[in-house]
Amino acid sequence: MSPVALMLGLKTLWVLAFSSLSNTLAVNNSGRWWGIINVASSTNLLTDSKNVQLVLDPSLQLLSRKQRKLIRQNPGILHSISSGLQSAIKECKWQFRNRRWNCPTMPGPNIFGKIVNRGCRETAFIFAITSAGVTHSVARSCSEGSIESCTCDYRRRGPGGPDWHWGGCSDNVDFGRVFGREFVDSNEKGRDLRFLMNLHNNEAGRLTVFTEMRQECKCHGMSGSCTVKTCWMRLPTFRTVGDFLKDRFDGASRVIYGNKGSNRASRVEVHHLEPENPAHKPPSPHDLVYFEKSPNFCTYSGKTGTAGTAGRSCNSSSPALDGCELLCCGRGYRTRTQQVTERCNCTFHWCCHVSCLNCTNMQILHECL
Ligand SMILES: *[C@@H]1O[C@H](CO)[C@@H](O)[C@H](O)[C@H]1NC(C)=O
Ligand SMILES: *[C@@H]1O[C@H](CO)[C@@H](O)[C@H](O)[C@H]1NC(C)=O
Ligand SMILES: *[C@@H]1O[C@H](CO)[C@@H](O)[C@H](O)[C@H]1NC(C)=O
Ligand SMILES: CC(=O)N[C@H]1CO[C@H](CO)[C@@H](O)[C@@H]1O
To answer: Are strands 164-166 and 228-234 parallel, antiparallel or unpaired?
Structure first.
């Protein structure tokens, strides 16, 4: 064999080995960027345009080369992504506070645990809310001027007219969406059902932020006559985004890999999601999609990484999911009383001081066995 042929052969081998390696890695790359929640939040780090520390912070090693480049190109954005992720986690925990799966997070790089490698509704919600968190936070940071590479969106124009006009500072949701697609979706490479599902849910999160934008206006002109009006588009609160996504969680579509009629000729069209039940409508871009039944989350399981509901506090008089019957999965509960000290009988003293008494009450707590 000639040296050239040998080199070519080696190169092919290397490419093969590398691509199979990156395929196995790719599976677990999903959501790796969530690890930046652990990034040290020194302002120095965030404004350092040379990004010397960016490279040194171990949390950032979780990011792909492309993601690190995006952070370098958009000074100030790391802080925004990180705070968007924090809002998303907070919202996830709030939306699911009364359910068996209560959006648990853990220290370390894989903050949501093994549920991320599954394809159930909870997985769908995690991807959608964190993606929405980035778009929401980045869009707001742009209009607040804390990211160097974007500003308010001044391009939005209504029908116009002589007496009112746009031109106010709109939250830059377009930048937030485009950036989210580049940054968040870049971990999702592949053509299988899991990647299609993650990408779909990421987009559903961004779309929710976008479609819930609201117009706000302010009047100018003589004594409130409103002869001139300035309008702009404002982001929804993140609670609104969470409420919408939680509704879509409840109504999520179970999908399968759409490979009907797949053949060589129609190769481009084979990668899509179809409802599992052919009688159902195909999922809309707003819908959350999943492909696998959720674990019951009742008991500890190392395999699925679920903690179970033992020790969770439940409501003994509620027939709903937060009730002891359902939350404790029929195992029963223990009741204990706990002393709680609260500030009470506060009085306001002019000016400006409030003094309170400490009241001790007994609180009855129910906890799942
Ligand atoms: C418990 O559930 C009942 C019935 O749904 C509700 O009225 C009550 O406010 C709940 N208590 C707490 C502490 O959430
Ligand atoms: C607080 O105020 C209420 C009525 O205003 C009174 O009945 C109660 O005894 C007060 N609590 C304490 C600890 O003083
Ligand atoms: C109430 O409790 C707090 C902390 O336990 C204490 O600092 C404060 O002095 C107490 N206030 C009164 C009025 O006893
Ligand atoms: C280390 C780790 O999390 N491995 C997981 C990678 O993804 C596969 C398939 O989703 C899981 O089965 C592994 O446990």
So the answer is: parallel
Q: Is 28 in the pocket of ligand 4 (CB under 6 A)?
A: yes
Pocket test for ligand 2, best of 345, 355, 357 (most atoms within 8 A of CB): 345
Reported pTM = 0.81
State the amino acid at position 134 in one-letter form.
Answer: V
**Distance in Å, CA 191 to ligand 4 centroid:** 17
Cβ neighbour number for residue 275 with a 10 Å cutoff: 17
Q: Which residue is closest in CA terms to ligand 2's atom 5?
A: 345
In a 10 Å sphere around its CB, with 0-12 CB exposed, 13-18 middle and 19+ buried, how is residue 72 labelled?
middle
Q: What is the dihedral of CA 106, 109, 114, 116, to 10 degrees?
A: 110
Tell me the per-residue pLDDT of 242-294, one tens digit each, with 9 for 90 and over.
999 999 999 999 999 886 545 555 444 456 889 999 999 999 999 999 999 99
> 110-160 pLDDT, tens per residue?
899 999 999 999 999 999 999 999 999 999 999 999 999 999 998 776 555
CB 33 within 8 A of CB 66: no
CA distance 80 to 67: 14
Distance of alpha carbon 245 from alpha carbon 179, whole angstroms: 20
Per the CB < 8 A criterion, the answer to whether 96 and 250 are in contact is: no
- Least distant ligand from the CA of 355: 3
The answer to whether 290 and 118 have CB atoms below 8 angstroms apart is no
**299 and 329 in contact (C-beta within 8 Å)?**
yes
